[in-house]
Amino acid sequence: MNSHSLQKMKVLILLLSVTFIHAEHRGRDYEKSKVCKEFANLGKDNFQSLSFVLYSKKFSRGTFEEIKALVDEVVSLTEECCDVNAAPDCYDRRTTELSSKSCEHDAPFPKHPDTHKCCAQEGLERKLCMAALVHPPQEFPTYKESSNEEICESFRKNPRDFAEKFLHKFSSSYGQAPLPLLVSYTKNYLSMVSTCCASSDITACFAKETFQNKYLTLLTILSDRVCSAFTIYGMEKTRFSYIVKFSQKAPAANLEDVIKVAESMTNVLSKCCDSIMEDCMSKEITEYTVSACEHLSDKEKEFKNCCGEKNPLDIFLCTYSMPAAQPIKLPDIVKPTNEEICNTENTNAIDRYTYEISRRNPYIPEVFITKVHSLSKEVLSECCKAVEPQACLKSQRPLARSEITSFLAKAEELCGDYSQLTFTEFKKRLTQHFKTNFPKANSKNIKDMVENRTDFAFKCCQMNSPPLYCGPRIDAETKNFCSHDSCLLTSRTK
After folding, report:
1. Where are the transmembrane segments (predicted)?
2. For every residue of the chain, which 3-state class applies, written as one string?
3. Predicted pLDDT at 11
4. Where exactly are the structural domains of the chain?
5. What's the whole-model pTM score?
6. Rounded CA gap, 34 and 202, in Å?
């Protein structure tokens, strides 16, 4: 990373503290001097642009007006307090005023459901609480590219307004991408717009620039997708989700190879999603694709085809987008013993059981399997902590197993056809299904049911379905799958 890029990353990180954090006295002066130095080096315009990226990423549900209000406040604070003639208490006073203003009911800044909890605190605790607030990932990006003509018309009308609105839209839509990627992409994009809108051949210019930046674009968007799931799932569930996915994509692969690739991918995300190193994601993805191709390309034809791509990013996109493989004939699953379930030192038995279930159910998306795994693991963990673990497991395991079977059957019903049929065929089959099951329903009701189920399938029956969005919808679609009175799993989803 060159010194200028590293400088930008430092200032972005420091911006978080400028907004709300009031460090202890000795650290506060150091913090202020660092911010002021970077503000002077970058200049007001660059500082403001980088603030838009950071706060749009942090508060991805905030409107443009809310983000702009926060950015303007931070830039004003920094500009005033970094002036050589600023009062000694300027920094403390302005940050305190900012945190107080954020607690007003009509505050112009981004809203957060936990703001009131922070406002119930005082002083440093309030500022630290405010600084920790962040919106959940945008699992369905809202940014849409306009036509070249529309872009240039808007840019020529007001270049600054165009730039600020673009920074907000793109950074909030793809806010889970690592900060250095967002900064690089948005900077390149605005440079492209400035160049091409002054070109005699706008179409040719945009085509050329877009092609030259295609890998940066691809890396930014893919990083947002995988880091979004990592943010929601955390380390352990992410590892588990990749065991499920790779078991479904390469069912002939052995567990050891699947785990190596799953852990390799999880480590990439752990290292890079919050990294300020500019080349972290591209470097780590290159190493990951080597591992994936080494362990899985000879186990599945589609993997081998992907590994034939020349660029690591093309390999990554190919393997990420790869659907589940066709089912293969496999022996019956060997269930883990009670002792293996309660052995906290060795998770291999649980990994193996997950792997065996996943590769036998390729048309059940990972979000379903991860959900039922988490619930059943919670039930079994409670047994392992009981006074008599064996007795608890003896009574609860059969019930949990029965519910898992019913849940997976329901998941197969919801998603199996979607995975195997064309979209048109899927809707036709759904229409017939609802007509058969609801003979008294009128055509409008049937159409509504078909549209609702189709929307569910389109968003939640994919290999890489968004967990935050799909969790509640899966709950709604599977709420009646349990056939006995005291349901172990469904009682935990409420």
Report:
1. none
2. CCHHHHHHHHHHHHHHHHHHCCCCHHHHHHHHHHHHHHHHHHCHHHHHHHHHHHHHHHCCCCCHHHHHHHHHHHHHHHHHHCCCCCCCCHHHHHHHHHHHHHCCCCCCCCCCCCHHHHHCCCHHHHHHHHHHCCCCCCCCCCCCCCCHHHHHHHHHHCHHHHHHHHHHHHHHHCCCCCHHHHHHHHHHHHHHHHHHCCCCCHHHHHHHHHHHCHHHHHHHHHHHHHHHHHHHHHHHHHHHHHHHHHHHHCCCCCHHHHHHHHHHHHHHHHHHCCCCCCCHHHHHHHHHHHHHHHHHCCCCHHHHHHCCCCCHHHHHHHHHHCCCCCCCCCCCCCCCCHHHHCCCCCCHHHHHHHHHHHHHCCCCCHHHHHHHHHHHHHHHHHHHCCCCHHHHHHHHHHHHHHHHHHHHHHHHHHHHHHHHCCHHHHHHHHHHHHHHHCCCCCHHHHHHHHHHHHHHHHHHCCCCCCHHHHHHHHHHHHCCCCCCCCCCCHHHCC
3. 54
4. 3-132, 148-212, 224-362, 363-492
5. 0.88
6. 42
According to CATH, what is the number of the domain 363-492? 1.10.246.10
Six token digits for residue 198: 């002054």
pLDDT at 22: 42
What is the distance between the alpha carbons of residues 470 and 323, in angstroms, rounded to a whole number?
18
* Burial environment of residue 50 by CB neighbours within 10 A (0 to 12, 13 to 18, 19 or more): buried
Tell me the CATH architecture of domain 224-362: Orthogonal Bundle (1.10)
Q: CA 443, 447, 451 angle in degrees (round to 5)? A: 175
Question: Which of 179, 164, 145, 194 is closest to 52 using CA atoms?
Answer: 164
| Angstrom distances, CA of residue 329 to CA of 101, 326, 333, 360, 404 | 64, 10, 12, 8, 21
Please answer whether residues 383 and 395 qualify as being in contact, where contact means their C-beta atoms are separated by less than 8 angstroms. no
What is the rounded distance in angstroms from the CA atom of residue 278 to the CA atom of residue 2? 9
- Using only C-alpha atoms, the chain has a radius of gyration, in whole angstroms, of 26
Mean pLDDT per 10-residue section of the chain, whose length is 494 residues: 52 52 48 78 88 93 96 92 89 85 91 91 83 89 93 97 97 95 95 96 97 95 96 94 95 94 97 91 96 94 94 96 91 86 73 88 90 82 89 87 86 88 92 92 93 93 92 83 59 54
* Cβ-contact 186, 171 below 8 angstroms: yes
